[in-house]
Write a structure and sequence with these properties.
The protein is α/β, with parallel strands linked by helices. Helix content is 46%, strand content 9%. It comes from Trapa natans (Water chestnut).
């Protein structure tokens, strides 16, 4: 049936006339006008009802509200007391609702920008700014500021040196970033125990054979001075303790029963008595031996103070990093932004992951032999590894291959002209494995390509200082991209958040990306949409520090304040 305007109007008129004829209220039958049908009244002055209607119209809304609030002024005196209270209650409720709405709007306008986690999904407030490849929205970065710096003009609560409970000594094990975390934890434990901290020793790395000392990489004077109102720190073991070799070699001088992520109370109950008795004790092992949710917030804030303010690299390391960052920004002859990519695809990382990667049959056989030799208990007979590899990839626990990284970055919108600084060890598979990434992003450089051999020779004596250069150049980049977990990426992302959330730090969703890569029917357009939508909130935006989540990657809750 086709639509006809004339037919519709006719039906409307027909229905209106039927409605008029069917209105037969008692008032109509008594000769009075129906309230639904307007009748002609030429002389309102002779009609009392007409005069009342005019008065109501002249008084307007405020007059009507006054009538509702004060019914005894109404022309109709037959209103009951109960019905007279109802309008007052309704108006009060209306006013209350308006006030609540205004308060809610003002609260939302003044609320800080903060992303909320719902399960595994992160929901962030909307912003009016258009997305940028090189920085987070300005409106998302003005709500928070660092507040873990030392208290200027504050009164130190440290006891006199003679009143300290004793001395603690640790070996900071692992690579540079694991050592950094251990140093921060050592200062925090010294504070908990009201003990004096002996300057930590950087334990020799068995892989790199590196013998870097604390003073070879960090500014010791600044470290001790900046924390002088928090913890007493001395450069060496006290002279009165003559048998220095006894530390770490004698069980009487070593606390070895500290569990991972121990609470502050554990240290007070189990470690403090031994320190008071022996006066000097070594804590071993000390990797991840202090928790996060089970210590006072002030202790977590102290860890941030150590990490972001007290631990400074030596001036010559800082200067070389500034030079490398400047060269990255001027590679095109004009000022350009640059991306730093932490590519974790070394042979050791690939082997330890027990994930399956694209490669020749010969490569897979060699990797199986390598895993069997290095991790025999996990390898067993190798029959269960294929299923394990599939499961880990689905869960996003496998390192991204260089080719996968290239496809994700291109889907995000980065062009082949993008300047990329790569922080990485020896990539497993060499040039062949790196070829897809280099083909899509030819402006790819490492510190070895960016600096002269003579410039880097000054740092080769201490391998840790080369790692420090990578750390600082990544920290100063416009965009930082991680490809797998680890302390390096964790500390970089946390520091960039602490600096104000403006700098983008991209953390790929490896689980979701593995599904997209494994879908043979997915075209480029839906893949691009998946990548962009998935990573809108994975750029280092402000979010709460989640329970049971360490503060190194997200220091907001204990270490940042409302701006």
């Amino acid at each position: 049936m086709t639509f006809s305007p004339k037919r519709a109007l006719a039906e409307l008129r027909h229905s209106s006339s039927l409605g008029s004829r069917s209105s037969s209220s008692p008032m109509k039958r008594d000769g009075e006008s129906s309230p639904l049908v307007a009748e002609s009244r030429p002389d309102y002055d002779d009609d009392d009802g007409g005069r009342h209607s005019l008065r109501d119209r002249d008084r307007g809304l405020w007059g009507y509200l006054n009538t509702l609030c004060h019914p005894h002024f109404s022309d109709d005196h037959r209103v009951s007391p109960l019905s007279s209270r109802i309008p007052v209650i309704l108006i009060a409720a209306l006013v209350l609702a308006v006030l609540i709405s205004i308060f809610s709007i003002v609260s939302r306008l003044n609320a800080p920008y903060l992303c909320k986690k719902d399960g595994i999904v992160l929901h962030c407030p909307r912003v009016k700014e258009s997305p940028s490849l090189w920085e987070n929205p300005y409106s998302a970065t003005t709500s928070w500021k660092p507040c873990a710096e030392r208290r200027h003009g504050g009164i130190s609560d440290l006891p006199h040196e003679n009143e300290t409970n004793g001395y603690i000594f640790i070996h900071a094990e692992g690579g540079l970033n694991q050592q950094r975390i251990a140093i921060c934890n050592a200062v925090a434990v010294a504070k908990i125990l009201n003990a004096t901290l002996i300057l930590p020793v950087l334990k020799q790395d068995q892989i790199w054979k590196d013998q870097t000392k604390f003073e070879d990489i960090f500014d010791v004077d600044h470290f001790i001075d900046y924390l002088k109102d928090d913890v007493q720190i001395v450069r060496d073991i006290p002279e009165w303790f003559t048998d220095k070799s006894e530390l770490f070699s004698s069980i009487r001088r070593t606390v070895k029963n500290i569990p991972k992520y121990a609470s502050a109370q554990f240290y007070i109950d189990n470690v403090l008595p031994r320190i008071k008795e022996k006066k000097i004790m070594a804590l071993k092992p000390f990797v991840d031996r202090l928790g996060y949710d089970n210590v006072p917030q002030e202790i977590n804030r102290l860890r941030c103070r150590v990490n972001y303010h007290a631990l400074k690299f030596l001036p010559h390391i800082e200067q070389m990093a500034d030079l490398l960052a400047s060269r990255m920004r001027n590679r095109t002859g004009i000022q350009n932004p640059y991306m730093a990519l932490h590519l974790r695809f070394e042979k050791g990382m690939v082997g330890l992951s027990f994930c399956d990667f694209v490669g020749t049959r010969e490569e897979k056989v060699k990797m199986a032999e390598y895993r069997k030799k290095e991790w025999p208990r996990r390898y067993k007979n190798g029959s269960h590894l294929w299923q394990l590899a599939l499961q880990k990839r689905k869960e996003g626990r496998c390192p991204l291959e260089p080719g996968e990284v290239a496809v994700i970055l291109r889907a995000m919108g980065y062009s082949k002209e993008t300047q990329i600084y790569v922080a990485s060890g020896q990539v497993y598979g060499g040039l062949n494995r790196m070829a897809p990434l280099r083909n899509m992003f030819p402006n790819l450089v490492t510190k070895e390509e960016l600096a002269t051999q003579a410039e880097l020779d000054k740092f080769r004596k201490h391998v840790t200082s080369l790692a420090a250069l990578d750390f600082l150049v990544c920290l100063k980049s416009d965009v930082f991209v991680m490809t797998h977990g680890g302390n390096f990426a964790k500390l970089i992302i946390g520091a960039r958040r602490y600096m104000g959330h403006r700098l983008k730090s991209i953390k790929p969703d490896k689980g979701l990306m593995s599904k997209s890569f494994g879908d043979p029917f997915m075209g480029w357009a839906p893949f691009v949409e998946d990548v962009i939508v998935t990573h809108q909130t994975r750029t280092g935006l402000p979010e709460e520090t989640f329970p049971n989540y360490d503060i190194w990657e997200n220091p907001l809750t204990p270490c940042m304040c409302r701006a």
